[in-house]
Amino acid sequence: MEQTRQAVDLFDKCKGEGGYFGYFRARDDQYFSRPVLGGLPGPRMSFGGKEVIMWAVNNYLGLAGNEKIKAAARASVERWGTFTPMGSRMLTGNTDAHIALEEKLAAFLQKPSAALFNYGYLGVLGTVSALVGPEDVVIMDRLSHACIVDATVLASAGRRFRSFKHNDLDNLEFHLKGANKERKGGILIVTEGVYGMRGDIADLPGICELKERYGARLFVDDAHGFGVVGENGRGAGEHFGVQDRIDLYFGTFAKAFAAIGGVTAGEREPILYVKYNSRTNVFAKSLPMVYVDVLSATLEAIMNEPRHRERMWEVTRKLQKGLLDLGFDIGDTQSPITPVYVPAGSEQMAMSMISMLREDYGVFVSGVTYPVVPLGVVMFRMIPTASHSDEDVERTLEAFRNLRDRLKLDLSEKPSRRNR
Fold first, then answer.
1. What is the pLDDT of residue 2?
2. Is residue 1 over pLDDT 70?
3. In this model, does residue 393 exceed pLDDT 80?
4. What is the 3-state secondary structure (H, E, C) of the chain?
5. Averaged over 304-319, what is the pLDDT?
6. What mean pLDDT value characterizes the chain?
7. Is 398 exposed, middle or buried (0-12, 13-18, 19+ CB in 10 A)?
8. Is the peptide bond prior to 371 cis by the omega test (within 30 degrees of 0)?
9. What percent of the chain has pLDDT over 70?
10. Which residue, 169, 161, 223, is CA-closest to 192?
11. Chain segment 283-294, per-residue pLDDT in tens
12. What pLDDT score does 87 carry?
């Protein structure tokens, strides 16, 4: 007699502590994950009913709440509402303003053409998946952001892709040689510009040399470098003087621009191909006019008001030097991103440190653990901004000093060196 197989409910996996951040999900946590914050994004916000110094918001240039930009937003909403235009860019959502913004962004990024996207994540997903076909190979840095990983998997459609050790040119060349040996199509190298957790910058000069030697193309997702690094804020390519050698430069508006959306810039033909073949663009409603107008105003501020970037770097230097002087491990950051590695990679220690900083000293930091960073790594990612004051930095460093002494932290080991 045939036995009936026990049915498995699709939702069984939702019970217990399985999946990402399962410990916190099972407890419906809103303290360490999904904390509820009050007030406008800035150096002081509210958490748990009291004011805290905020180090966890990517408002690099302090432009969230900028009065000129807020005025541009109000005027745009008054004229267009929140809904204009209706439809995708392919059908009824294209406007002169969208085209003009793309042209301004292309000029700023020193590229012939640019394509707007509604979100940064969808911009990376759409660009890579549009250009990579069945015979092409993607080679990505192993520590790339989730959007790059997802774009690579989507573009590879179940086929094998290659990943190279973080910022390791020898390993990248090994994979380029392997891809060329069995080559049937093109090769796309994908990397971040400024790495969003570690704060280090991709070796773009070396990567450009290799991609040219092996006939590959290069896509740089510079979410944390766009508007932030480089003499004029053009990003990691400008920082190294290789912007002209990057085939596809991507920037998001969710960080320095304090908005939403993204842009891919490059030569006219591949950008036009992306516009017509990116599913996240073709099948999505056009970016609303309020964002188009605000982004145009923000770009003007980034180009013409360097004081914002200069102040951001002042705050960055003070915070990072202070943490190093206290003995904390901040890795090899080359950007405002300031990772503070938790001793021994302990999640329990991290939660104790977070609670003490927030409750006893009014300093808000967020903990980062797997899958955002590799297994065994736990860190705080602090974001100094142009709107932080010297007092904010001093109070925060005093809090870290007290934290170190009260918890008797052993800072002699450097976790960042174990997880390269």
1. 57
2. no
3. yes
4. CCCCCCCCCHHHHHCCCCCCCHHHHHCCCCCCCCCCEECCCCCEEEECCEEEEECCCCCCCCCCCCHHHHHHHHHHHHHHCCCCCCCCCCCCCCCHHHHHHHHHHHHHCCCCEEEEECCHHHHHHHHHHHHCCCCCEEEEECCCCHHHHHHHHHHHCCCCCEEECCCCHHHHHHHHHHHHHCCCCCEEEEEECECCCCCCECCHHHHHHHHHHCCCEEEEECCCCCCCCCCCCCCHHHHHCCHHHCCEEEEECCCCCCCCCEEEEECHHHHHHHHHHCHHHHCCCCCCHHHHHHHHHHHHHHHHCCHHHHHHHHHHHHHHHHHHHCCCCCCCCCCCCEEEECHHHCHHHHHHHHHHHHHHHCEECCEECCCCCCCCCCEEEECCCCCCCHHHHHHHHHHHHHHHHHHCCCCCCCHHHHCC
5. 97
6. 94
7. middle
8. yes
9. 98
10. 223
11. 999 999 999 999
12. 95
123: tokens are 């911009």
